[in-house]
Specification:
binds uridine 5'-triphosphate, 10 helices, Spore Coat Polysaccharide Biosynthesis Protein SpsA, Chain A, 13 strands, globular, two-stranded antiparallel sheet
Length: 297
């Protein structure tokens, strides 16, 4: 029987060095796109996919992230008295049910694979999702929901995948495709950051995964191997070599790499323009900026 996916791991223990000095005191995941922190986009996507248990792998200095999900009774009562129903509604979206969130500590930033491994005791025998909140995906149907629906048919392990230009393959894990079925591909290998001329395809893995608990056995072995970071990609590659049940899923939507400055700015523009109340003023501003720059060139 195929098990439902009800747990998600959010690895948020990275150092976020690309956003220093901001990340000296603010977790990257609390940085805002328009008016919502990155983590809120990830939580909303997980909820839409039917996730009930939210496991955060955190580290030192991530207190603001943990506090973000606390109910703010004082603020809520002030807003209620002032009749600010719309703001109350926005706050309600951030409230999490008691017991729905777990925080696990990663004591040292030993890599994404290690961060996922830290959550092993909270997972049990069922498949689970992994969401990297720096990858923000604008989509009509949220990306993880698309994946959970596809996973109900395939079972096994699934990674979100998107086509990238050849000159960009060296920035991603790239899939070696066995069988291309359209949205779904079955995978016979995975190569980390290959140069353009050695990449087995243009299909890159991004930060959404549905994995089986067997991944923890591979992470265990990798962890006790040579020093350095423990890569999630290596554990998935190990699973590919042992089984026939790893799929790539071409999601429908636009992904923004909010772990990089350029990606974060692009997402800010896209999500700002998508807001009805901001659209007109913002687009006029952008048109004006572009015209001024063109004139100056
Ligand atoms: P990144 O590769 O973006 O690293 O991690 P980072 O530390 O967050 O950022 P930079 O590169 O220093 O700017 C991808 C995801 O894996 C998590 C991060 O929090 C992010 O969600 N991660 C990474 C961990 O949880 N632990 C780690 O040891 C490494």
């Amino acid at each position: 029987m195929k098990r439902k996916v009800t747990k998600a791991i959010f690895p948020v223990a990275g150092l976020g060095t690309r956003f220093l000095p901001a990340t000296k005191s603010i977790p990257k995941e609390i940085m805002t796109l328009v008016d919502r922190p990155l983590i809120q986009y990830a939580i909303d996507e997980a909820r839409a996919a039917g996730i009930k248990e939210f496991i955060f792998v955190t580290s030192r200095g991530k207190g603001a992230l943990e506090d973000y999900f606390d109910h703010s009774h004082e603020l809520e009562s002030t807003l209620r008295k002032a009749g600010k129903e719309d703001l109350l509604e926005a706050l309600r979206d951030t409230n999490m049910e008691s017991g729905a969130i777990a925080y696990i500590r990663q004591h040292k930033a030993l890599g994404l694979g290690h961060a996922v491994w830290c959550a092993r005791r909270l997972i049990g025998q069922e498949p689970f999702a992994v969401i990297l909140p720096d990858d923000v995906i604008a989509a009509e149907k949220p990306c993880l929901q698309q994946m959970v629906e596809a996973h109900a048919e395939t079972g096994g392990n699934m990674v979100a995948a998107m086509e990238v230009p050849s000159e960009k393959t060296s920035a991603y894990g790239i899939l070696d495709i066995r069988d291309d079925m359209g949205a779904l591909v079955s995978v016979k290998g995975m190569v980390e950051k290959p140069a353009a001329n050695t990449a087995p395809s243009n299909l890159a893995v991004i930060g959404r995964y549905i994995l089986t608990p067997k991944i923890f056995q591979h992470l265990n072995r990798l962890k006790s191997g040579a020093g350095g970071e423990v890569q999630l990609t290596d554990a998935i590659a190990e699973e590919i070599s042992r089984s026939n049940n790893v799929y790539g899923f071409r999601f429908r939507g636009q992904r923004f790499d909010c772990g990089s400055k350029a990606g974060f700015l692009q997402a800010t523009v896209a999500f700002g323009l998508a807001r009805e109340e901001l659209h007109e003023e913002f687009i006029q501003f952008l048109i004006g900026m572009t015209a001024t720059r063109k004139a100056a060139e």
